[in-house]
UniProtKB/TrEMBL annotation:
This is Ornithine carbamoyltransferase. Keywords: Signal, Transferase. It comes from the Bacteria. InterPro entries: SinI-like (IPR047745). One of its GO terms (molecular function) is transferase activity. Residues 1-26 form the signal peptide. The lineage of its organism: Bacteria, Pseudomonadati, Pseudomonadota, Gammaproteobacteria, Enterobacterales.
Length: 306
């Protein structure tokens, strides 16, 4: 009995010795190349297309891009190894300015995907400088914070309003923005001033479009637009002038206050031929574009701009 117990002790001791002697190998293979993982992948939530993104936004004018609109790029992030999303460190939004010249960057607010399977977003507000731009552009590269390979393809969107486009210029998903050109949004105000008042930011010049003061035949008026940062409808100090892409002076309403012995005429946003600069001198009756005998008298003036 005692003998048998001793044998069992011996066997146990040998077994323990065998378990702890693993670090002593007789030989080993050469090492492999470094372990690699899988590339990070961005895909469009709308249709699961890979190397693709979707766009959405809030649009002041339905069906059009306007200054002040918010545009959001969204993607699904996948990394099968567990490397986290770092794609938005490569994001680059821009627009081609209306007047020509190089692309102008647009600052973004970025929120990377929390983990593989999550969604990342990059959000911009269309700046006033984008007025008239035909398209909003963005590039982003599939990129992870760690791993090998650490990056994949660069997704190049040359027009956020396209799903696919010439040269693959769209986002690849079915979520797109309205098309350009970018029009005037609610953050831009326009007014009509006496030219001789030399209107400027904070000048306090009378805005005939907002004050009940009658414009006069023979006087010269100017249209001015500005970034109405505080949404007051007043060209306050510090609010930058904006130069619209297009301007059209108009006559509107009835001339009943001036028709006298002539028939009352009514105009509905009548575009004054040739009045497409920022300056308009109210003509005498004979050279008025109104078609009414008392000329511009009695009608209201307004300016459409974009
Ligand atoms: Ca990876
Ligand atoms: Ca203002």
């Amino acid at each position: 009995m005692t003998m048998n117990f001793r044998v069992k002790q011996m066997v146990l001791a040998l077994a323990l010795a065998g378990m702890t002697s693993g670090s002593v190998w007789a030989a080993s293979t050469p090492t492999t190349s470094s372990v690699q993982g899988r590339v990070p992948v961005l895909s469009a939530p709308s249709n699961n297309a890979t190397q693709a993104v979707d766009f959405s936004g809030t649009y002041a004018t339905p069906g059009q891009l306007s200054t002040g609109d918010t545009v959001v790029m969204t993607y699904d992030y996948t990394d099968l190894d567990g490397d986290v999303d770092n794609s938005l460190t490569t994001v680059n939004w821009s627009y081609a300015p209306f007047g020509g010249g190089g692309d102008v960057p647009i600052a973004a607010t970025n929120a990377p995907a929390a983990s593989s399977g999550g969604q990342g977003t990059s959000t911009i507000t269309l700046p006033i400088g984008a007025l008239g731009a035909t398209a909003i552009k963005v590039t982003v590269q599939e990129f992870s914070a760690t791993g090998d390979p650490i990056s994949g393809s660069t997704i190049t969107v040359t027009d956020t309003s396209l799903s696919t486009g010439p040269g693959g210029g769209g986002g690849g998903g079915t979520g797109v923005t309205p098309p350009g050109p970018v029009v005037v949004g609610g953050n831009i105000a326009g007014g009509i001033f006496l030219a001789s008042a030399s209107p400027a930011a904070g000048s306090g010049a009378v805005d005939y479009a907002r004050v009940g003061t009658h414009p006069l035949v023979g006087q010269t008026y100017v249209f001015r637009a500005w970034n109405d940062a505080n949404n007051s409808g007043i060209w306050d100090a510090g609010e930058a002038q904006v130069v619209p892409v297009s301007i059209q002076w108009k006559l509107d309403g009835s001339n009943a206050t001036a028709n006298g012995t002539s028939a009352v005429a009514t105009l509905n946003n009548h575009s004054i031929a040739g009045a497409t600069s920022d300056t308009y001198t109210i003509p005498v009756n004979s050279t008025s574009n109104s078609g009414a005998i008392p000329g511009d008298q009695g009608f209201s003036l307004k300016v459409d701009f974009n």
